[in-house]
Amino acid sequence: MPKKAKKQQQPGGTPATVALTAAGVSFTVHAYDHDPSHPSYGEEAAEAMGVSPDRVFKTLVADVDGTLTVAVVPVAGSLDLKALATAVSGKRAAMADPTIAERTTGYVRGGISPLGQRKKLPTVLDASASAHTTICVSAGRRGLEVELSPTDLTHLTDATLAPIARA
Protein backbone atom coordinates (compact mmCIF):
# COMPACT_ATOMS: atom_id res chain seq x y z
CA MET A 1 0.00 0.00 0.00
CA PRO A 2 1.61 3.32 -1.05
CA LYS A 3 2.25 5.90 1.64
CA LYS A 4 0.19 9.04 1.56
CA ALA A 5 1.53 12.35 2.69
CA LYS A 6 -0.61 14.12 5.24
CA LYS A 7 -0.79 17.89 4.81
CA GLN A 8 -0.82 19.87 8.02
CA GLN A 9 -1.21 23.61 8.38
CA GLN A 10 -0.30 23.64 12.05
CA PRO A 11 3.30 24.29 12.88
CA GLY A 12 4.82 21.22 14.49
CA GLY A 13 7.00 21.19 17.50
CA THR A 14 10.45 20.95 15.92
CA PRO A 15 13.02 23.74 16.21
CA ALA A 16 12.61 24.27 12.44
CA THR A 17 8.86 24.89 12.59
CA VAL A 18 9.24 26.99 15.73
CA ALA A 19 11.80 29.16 13.88
CA LEU A 20 9.48 29.50 10.88
CA THR A 21 6.55 30.47 13.07
CA ALA A 22 8.65 33.01 14.99
CA ALA A 23 9.82 34.53 11.69
CA GLY A 24 6.23 34.90 10.49
CA VAL A 25 6.86 33.34 7.09
CA SER A 26 4.34 31.29 5.15
CA PHE A 27 4.99 27.55 5.18
CA THR A 28 3.22 24.20 5.02
CA VAL A 29 4.17 21.11 6.99
CA HIS A 30 3.94 17.74 5.23
CA ALA A 31 4.04 14.59 7.36
CA TYR A 32 4.34 11.03 6.07
CA ASP A 33 5.06 7.61 7.52
CA HIS A 34 8.82 7.14 7.30
CA ASP A 35 10.02 3.73 6.12
CA PRO A 36 13.41 2.99 7.75
CA SER A 37 14.22 0.51 4.96
CA HIS A 38 13.92 3.11 2.17
CA PRO A 39 17.36 3.68 0.60
CA SER A 40 17.00 7.50 0.34
CA TYR A 41 15.36 9.83 2.85
CA GLY A 42 14.91 12.57 0.24
CA GLU A 43 13.50 10.35 -2.50
CA GLU A 44 11.16 8.79 0.05
CA ALA A 45 9.89 12.27 0.97
CA ALA A 46 9.35 13.24 -2.68
CA GLU A 47 7.45 9.99 -3.38
CA ALA A 48 5.32 10.26 -0.24
CA MET A 49 4.37 13.88 -0.95
CA GLY A 50 3.91 13.39 -4.69
CA VAL A 51 6.39 16.20 -5.35
CA SER A 52 9.06 16.26 -8.06
CA PRO A 53 12.49 15.35 -6.63
CA ASP A 54 13.92 18.59 -8.05
CA ARG A 55 11.68 20.53 -5.57
CA VAL A 56 12.65 18.46 -2.53
CA PHE A 57 16.00 19.47 -1.08
CA LYS A 58 18.26 17.51 1.27
CA THR A 59 20.37 19.12 3.96
CA LEU A 60 23.96 17.93 4.11
CA VAL A 61 26.71 18.99 6.48
CA ALA A 62 30.24 19.28 5.14
CA ASP A 63 33.56 20.35 6.58
CA VAL A 64 35.07 23.17 4.53
CA ASP A 65 38.61 23.97 5.65
CA GLY A 66 37.71 23.05 9.24
CA THR A 67 34.37 24.88 9.32
CA LEU A 68 31.11 22.93 9.34
CA THR A 69 28.97 24.18 6.46
CA VAL A 70 25.41 23.32 5.48
CA ALA A 71 24.67 22.46 1.85
CA VAL A 72 21.05 22.30 0.66
CA VAL A 73 20.71 20.48 -2.67
CA PRO A 74 17.92 18.75 -4.63
CA VAL A 75 17.40 15.10 -3.71
CA ALA A 76 17.51 14.35 -7.45
CA GLY A 77 21.21 15.25 -7.51
CA SER A 78 24.30 15.15 -5.37
CA LEU A 79 26.55 17.68 -3.69
CA ASP A 80 29.58 18.94 -5.61
CA LEU A 81 32.07 19.38 -2.75
CA LYS A 82 34.47 21.46 -4.84
CA ALA A 83 31.65 23.86 -5.80
CA LEU A 84 30.60 24.10 -2.14
CA ALA A 85 34.14 25.01 -1.09
CA THR A 86 34.28 27.65 -3.83
CA ALA A 87 30.90 29.09 -2.78
CA VAL A 88 32.23 29.83 0.72
CA SER A 89 35.71 30.89 -0.45
CA GLY A 90 37.25 27.68 0.81
CA LYS A 91 39.79 25.31 -0.66
CA ARG A 92 38.74 21.80 0.42
CA ALA A 93 35.44 20.27 1.42
CA ALA A 94 34.55 16.82 2.69
CA MET A 95 31.40 15.39 4.18
CA ALA A 96 31.28 15.95 7.93
CA ASP A 97 31.29 13.05 10.35
CA PRO A 98 27.58 12.17 10.86
CA THR A 99 27.92 12.17 14.67
CA ILE A 100 29.45 15.64 14.65
CA ALA A 101 26.76 16.88 12.21
CA GLU A 102 24.02 15.54 14.49
CA ARG A 103 25.56 16.98 17.65
CA THR A 104 26.16 20.39 16.06
CA THR A 105 22.76 20.77 14.37
CA GLY A 106 20.65 19.10 17.05
CA TYR A 107 19.00 16.87 14.46
CA VAL A 108 19.40 13.21 13.49
CA ARG A 109 20.73 12.09 10.11
CA GLY A 110 17.88 11.97 7.61
CA GLY A 111 16.08 14.68 9.57
CA ILE A 112 18.61 17.51 9.55
CA SER A 113 16.86 20.76 8.71
CA PRO A 114 18.62 23.89 7.51
CA LEU A 115 16.33 25.78 9.92
CA GLY A 116 16.41 25.95 13.71
CA GLN A 117 19.80 24.33 14.12
CA ARG A 118 21.43 24.26 17.55
CA LYS A 119 24.41 26.20 16.16
CA LYS A 120 24.02 28.52 13.19
CA LEU A 121 26.32 27.31 10.43
CA PRO A 122 27.29 28.89 7.11
CA THR A 123 24.68 27.70 4.61
CA VAL A 124 24.69 27.37 0.82
CA LEU A 125 21.47 26.72 -1.09
CA ASP A 126 21.78 25.30 -4.58
CA ALA A 127 20.92 27.96 -7.15
CA SER A 128 18.33 25.66 -8.78
CA ALA A 129 16.01 26.42 -5.85
CA SER A 130 15.30 29.86 -7.28
CA ALA A 131 13.55 28.24 -10.27
CA HIS A 132 10.70 27.13 -7.97
CA THR A 133 7.96 29.05 -6.18
CA THR A 134 8.31 26.71 -3.21
CA ILE A 135 10.70 23.96 -2.19
CA CYS A 136 10.56 21.32 0.53
CA VAL A 137 13.24 20.73 3.16
CA SER A 138 13.33 18.62 6.29
CA ALA A 139 11.27 20.03 9.13
CA GLY A 140 13.60 18.46 11.65
CA ARG A 141 12.73 14.79 11.81
CA ARG A 142 12.35 11.85 9.46
CA GLY A 143 8.86 11.83 7.97
CA LEU A 144 8.32 15.58 8.30
CA GLU A 145 8.99 18.15 5.59
CA VAL A 146 8.32 21.86 5.41
CA GLU A 147 7.43 23.67 2.19
CA LEU A 148 8.42 27.31 1.86
CA SER A 149 9.72 29.79 -0.68
CA PRO A 150 13.43 29.58 -1.50
CA THR A 151 13.63 33.32 -0.80
CA ASP A 152 12.38 32.82 2.75
CA LEU A 153 14.77 29.90 3.28
CA THR A 154 17.69 31.98 2.00
CA HIS A 155 16.76 34.89 4.25
CA LEU A 156 16.19 32.81 7.40
CA THR A 157 19.46 30.86 7.08
CA ASP A 158 21.55 33.74 5.67
CA ALA A 159 22.31 31.31 2.84
CA THR A 160 24.46 31.94 -0.17
CA LEU A 161 22.85 30.88 -3.46
CA ALA A 162 25.34 29.00 -5.64
CA PRO A 163 25.41 26.10 -8.12
CA ILE A 164 26.58 23.36 -5.73
CA ALA A 165 24.59 20.36 -7.04
CA ARG A 166 25.46 17.79 -9.68
CA ALA A 167 22.76 16.00 -11.64
Task: Give a description of the structure.
It is built from 5 helices and 11 strands. The chain is globular and about 40 Å long. The strands form 3 sheets. A 5-stranded mixed beta sheet has the order 6-3-4-7-10. A 4-stranded antiparallel beta sheet has the order 1-2-9-8. A two-stranded antiparallel sheet has the order 5-11. The longest helix is centred in the N-terminal third of the chain and has 9 residues. The relative contact order is 0.23. By secondary structure, it is an alpha+beta fold.
Spell out the blueprint of helices and strands:
Elements: E1 6-8, H1 15-23, E2 28-31, H2 41-49, E3 57-64, E4 67-74, E5 78-79, H3 81-87, E6 93-95, H4 98-105, E7 123-126, E8 135-141, E9 144-148, H5 150-157, E10 160-162, E11 165-166
Parallel strand pairs: 4-7, 7-10
Antiparallel strand pairs: 1-2, 2-9, 3-4, 3-6, 5-11, 8-9
Mean pLDDT: 91
Summarize the biggest pleated sheet: 5 strands, mixed
Radius of gyration: 15 Å
Unreliably modeled segments: 1-12
Number of strands: 11
Strand content: 25-35%
One letter per element, helices H and strands E, the order comes to: EHEHEEEHEHEEEHEE
> What would you call the structural class?
alpha+beta
User: What is the subunit arrangement here?
Assistant: single chain
Shape: globular
